[in-house]
From TrEMBL:
InterPro entries given in the database record: Pectin_lyas_fold, Pectin_lyase_fold/virulence, PL-6
Pfam family name, one: Chondroitinas_B
Taxonomic source organism: Thalassotalea euphylliae
Record protein name field: Right handed beta helix domain-containing protein
Gene3D superfamilies xrefs: Single-stranded right-handed beta-helix, Pectin lyase-like
C-alpha cells in the first residue's frame, strides 16, 4: 500500500509540468535536483517517494550529449608557423624561471620576452606584472610556437597583471594536481590592466583560469581592466574542481569593451559545498559595459560527465549569480552588465541548467547562437532586457522576475 502511495506521489510530482509555465524538461530537471538533495535526509515513505521521483524523472529526461569530437576550425588554439624573430635588443630570450621573472621585472614597452622550449615551474603565490606597455608597443610574453613551453603553476595565481598593454601568446598554462582549493588563476588582471591580449594559449586545471576585476586607485575608487581581448584559447579542466571557490574559466567583473572570441571552453564542473557546484563557462558581471562573446564553443560536458543533478554548469552569462555592490563599477550594481552581445556561439551539453543566463543585464543582444542539450535561455529580473534573434535553441526562453525580451527569427527544437 505504501509503495503504491509513493509511486502515485511521484507521478503527481512529475505530472505538474502540465500545470506550470515551465517546460517539461524544467520540471524533470528540478525534480532530479530536489530528490537527489533530499533523499539522504529522509527515511521511510518520504525517502521511497523521493527515490521514485528521481527514478521516473531520470527515465523521462534523456538529453542528447553531443560528441567529444567536434569541428574546431578557427576555434581555440592552434600550432601556427613559428614566430620569426630577428636579432633585436627588444627580443629578450629566457631559458628558466629565474630569467623569466627577471625579464618581467625589467621589462620596457615594446619588449618581447621569448621563452625557450621547456617546462617552467612557478611555485610563487603570484608573479606580479607592474610595468605598463604602450599603445603600439605592448610587452609580450610568448613561446615561438605553441607546444614548446609549459608553465606549471602551483601558487594561488600565476601572472598577477596590474599594468596596461601586455600580451600572452603560444603558452600552455597547467595547474598542479592536488591543490584545487589553492590554485585559482593562471592570469589575474586587476585595476588598470587595460588592453591586455591573451591569445592562442591553452589553460588547463585552474578554478577561474582567467580572472579580471577592479582594484582601488589612489583616490579610493575602483579601476577595472578595459579593452581586453581573450581570443583563440583552449580553456578546460581534466577533473572536476574540489573547491568552494568560484570555478568559471573566464571570470570578468566590471570593465568596458571586453572581447571574448573564438575560444574553446569545456569541462568546468566543481563539487563545491555539499557536492553542490554551480559554474559558468564564461561570464561578465559587476557593472561592465559593451562586452562581447563571439564565436566561442562552450561544452559544459566534454570529457568530464556530469556527476549528479547538482553538478550545474551554465554556458555563457551576463550577470552570473550577481555581484556585491562594493565590487561593482558604480558602487550600486543596479545592472550587472549593459549593452552586452552574445553572437555566433555554440553552447552544448549544459544538461542540468540553461545554456545562456542573463541576470540584471540591460539591453543585451543574443544573436545567431546555437544552444543545444540544455534547458535553453533564462532572462531574470526587471533590470534585464534582451533581443533574442536568429538563434537555434533546444529548449525555451524563460523571462523571470519581471525580465523582458523580444524574440524573432529563432528556431526552437
Amino acid at each position: 500500500m505504501y509503495r503504491l502511495i509513493a509511486i502515485l506521489l511521484a507521478l503527481i510530482c512529475i505530472g505538474t509540468a502540465t500545470f506550470f509555465p515551465y517546460s517539461k524538461d524544467d520540471v524533470l530537471v528540478n525534480a532530479l535536483k530536489y530528490s537527489h538533495l533530499n533523499i539522504p535526509q529522509n527515511e521511510g515513505l518520504h525517502r521511497f517517494a523521493l527515490s521514485k521521483v528521481k527514478q521516473i524523472a531520470s527515465a523521462l529526461y534523456r538529453p542528447t550529449i553531443y560528441p567529444k569530437v567536434i569541428d574546431l576550425t578557427g576555434i581555440g588554439s592552434s600550432v601556427k608557423q613559428p614566430m620569426y624573430l630577428t636579432d633585436s635588443p627588444f627580443h629578450i630570450k629566457v631559458a628558466n624561471t629565474e630569467q623569466l621573472f627577471a625579464a618581467i621585472k625589467a621589462a620596457e614597452p615594446g619588449e618581447h620576452i621569448v621563452l625557450q622550449p621547456g617546462i617552467y615551474v612557478i611555485n610563487q603565490p603570484q608573479v606580479p606584472i607592474l610595468t605598463n606597455g604602450e599603445k603600439g608597443a605592448p610587452i609580450t610574453i610568448s613561446a615561438v610556437q605553441l607546444g614548446e613551453v609549459r608553465l606549471l603553476m602551483s601558487g594561488q595565481e600565476g601572472f598577477a597583471v596590474k599594468a596596461r598593454y601586455w600580451k600572452f601568446e603560444n603558452l600552455i598554462f597547467v595547474g598542479a594536481k592536488g591543490h584545487d582549493g589553492a590554485i585559482e588563476h593562471a592570469i589575474h588582471l586587476s585595476g588598470d590592466a587595460d588592453f591586455v591580449e591573451i591569445s592562442n594559449n591553452q589553460f588547463i586545471n585552474f578554478n577561474a583560469h582567467i580572472k579580471s576585476n577592479g582594484a582601488p586607485n589612489s583616490r579610493g575608487e575602483l579601476d577595472f581592466p578595459d579593452g581586453l581581448l581573450i581570443a583563440n584559447n583552449d580553456i578546460y579542466n581534466q577533473w572536476k574542481r574540489n573547491t568552494k571557490s568560484p570555478a568559471s574559466p573566464i571570470d570578468i567583473v566590471g570593465g568596458d569593451s571586453v572581447i571574448v572570441k573564438n575560444n574553446f571552453i569545456a569541462d568546468f564542473g566543481k563539487y563545491g559545498r555539499q557536492g553542490y557546484g554551480t559554474t559558468y563557462g564564461a561570464f561578465m558581471k559587476g557593472g561592465g559595459i559593451n562586452g562581447l562573446f563571439d564565436n566561442n564553443i562552450v561544452m559544459c560536458e566534454w570529457r568530464l560527465p556530469h556527476t549528479s543533478p547538482l553538478d550545474i554548469r551554465v554556458g555563457l552569462s551576463f550577470g552570473n549569480g550577481g555581484t556585491g555592490s562594493q565590487f561593482c563599477a558604480d558602487g550600486k550594481c543596479e545592472y550587472e552588465h549593459v549593452n552586452g552581445t552574445m553572437r555566433n556561439n555554440t553552447i552544448l551539453n549544459c544538461v542540468n541548467d540553461v545554456g545562456i543566463y542573463l541576470n540584471k543585464a540591460k539591453n543585451t543582444l543574443v544573436e545567431n547562437n546555437a544552444v543545444r542539450s540544455s534547458l535553453g535561455v533564462d532572462i531574470r529580473f526587471e533590470q534585464s532586457s534582451a533581443d533574442i534573434v536568429g538563434n537555434i535553441i533546444e529548449g525555451r526562453v524563460n523571462q523571470r522576475n519581471g525580465a523582458s525580451a523580444s524574440l524573432s527569427d529563432n528556431i526552437f527544437e
